[in-house]
Amino acid sequence: MRIMTSTRLRRTGLMLGAVLMLTDCTVGPNYQPDRMTLPSGFTEAEHDATADEIARANHEMTQWWAEFHDPMLNALVAKAISGNYDLQVAGQRILAERALHDEAVSAWYPQIDANTTNGDARYSINVDNWPIRPGNPQNRPGSSYLSYGVEATWEIDLFGRIRRSVEAQDRVFDQSIESRRAVLLAMLSELATDYVTLRATQLQLKIANDNIRVAQDALDLTNRLYVEGVGNTLQIAQAQAELDSQTAAREPLKTHISQLTHAIDVLLGQMPGTTEAQLKVYQDLPSVPGFPATLPSIVIANRPDIRMAERHYAEDTARVGVAVAQLYPNFVIPLSFNPNASAMYQLFEAGALSWKFLMMASVPLMHGGKYTAQIHAAQAMAEASRLTYRQTVLKAFKEVEDAMAAWHDDEEHNALLHRAAVDSATARDRAERLYGAGLIGFLDVLTTQRSTLNAQNLEALARLERLRDAIDLYTALGAGWRGVAVTNTTLPVSLESQNVLARAIRQ
């Protein structure tokens, strides 16, 4: 009996050794990055960037918001990075994916559980051929039952099913990192856009207040001329209507300013109105940064959506291997040790021992094409991910080219509108002097006032558009996420305090 048991154990050990020697037979395709041919430069670039310009641009794009030279914007960005809730949520998803990766890795290790059973059982005696159990004769259908033991199972990853699953989960974890970077970029872009829009709206409010003063001066002049017998009531009514119109146009600007401050507070992770008093203090628009020197490779290296699409392609490639592995034999080693008896002292006797140590293998034979269909589906998904990656690259280059084109076109547009605003203000001043001298009618004054207001507002919007062009270009280049660490915030629950075994055993 002892010799037979030893022989069986040796045979099982040899089988296990043979299987372990073959554990490098990972099936399925190995991931190969999809190489796209990039252009030598952007068509909308000012010139071919030198190595020094590229190095300087890379440094500037790490904290591109600093290139606007606005201390308030820098302070807001710092608060948003530490307080924005969307960014913190994205960070928690990274931690969750890391835990899921560890869960996938656990399939490599033996799964072991302890168990115990204690109680009484009664069996029916109204069944034909009632079996006679040791220690439980037919006239005693009830019995006490005590048992303890260990159940274990270990899957031998011979053909790489677990390995490919872990590889796929690795890529999902990488995607969560890129997703957080994308959230960071979107948040920075939104914050900077809201901030420059706030300053532009404040400039429009200043223009409106200046024009209200001009309209009030025109009304005062019209009243004086009427008293002197030069003017008439029609001119007074026109001047009053213009003043009322200018005053009414100011109110929506105030509302927009309040809404922008509220939006900025939410991006900072604080209640709306927290920084309203501070932000409502008038400040001129930030300066427009210099045009950044860029290379096409910067887009590929920095854009989180491109990096995420590439990682998704790698994940789907690994899942092809998971599907292929289902066509191959699966090896599992089950182990159980379960002594049982009716009395406590009997549990540790040789007769109470019950154990099992096997090598189990299963081979798929016929499943109506299920596994083949799963492989075809995984291959199609991987190819779709590769094509999505290519499309993402194309869209990214389009966004960069569009932002560069807008930068150059709006620069000239801004210069022309500035000249128009200056000329309109000059014409308005001259019209008011001529009207005061009685050389022209009040309608000419109204025309020049409205033309000036329109030109000044258009210039303010053009300056805003120039700043947005810069923000859009930096965002299209994928700038700003480097050097921002993930905030590791977790619920106040200690694993070790939940289970004493967790202190000593990896669970």
Entry summary:
This protein is of the alpha+beta class and 507 residues long. The chain contains 12 helices and 6 strands. It has one domain (43-108, 144-485): Outer membrane efflux proteins (OEP) (Up-down Bundle), CATH 1.20.1600.
Ordered list of secondary-structure elements with their pairings:
Blueprint: H1 2-21, H2 51-62, H3 71-83, H4 85-105, E1 111-122, E2 142-156, H5 161-227, H6 233-267, H7 276-279, H8 296-302, H9 304-325, E3 330-337, E4 340-341, E5 355-357, E6 360-362, H10 370-436, H11 442-476, H12 495-498
Antiparallel strand pairs: 1-2, 2-3, 2-4, 3-5, 3-6
Helix pairs in contact: 3-5, 4-5, 5-6, 5-9, 5-11, 9-10, 10-11
Based on the structure given, which CATH architecture is correct?
Answer: Up-down Bundle
Oligomerization state of this entry?
Answer: single chain
Largest sheet descriptor: 6 strands, antiparallel
CATH class: Mainly Alpha
Domain module count: 1
Counting DSSP H or I runs of 4 or more residues, the number of helices is 12
Looking at CATH, the homologous superfamily is: Outer membrane efflux proteins (OEP)
State the total count of DSSP E strands. Answer: 6
Unreliable runs = none
Strand content: 5-15%
CATH topology: Outer membrane efflux proteins (OEP)
- Shape category: elongated
Pfam families: OEP
Main location: membrane
GO molecular function: efflux transmembrane transporter activity
Keywords: Lipoprotein, Membrane, Palmitate, Transmembrane, Transmembrane beta strand
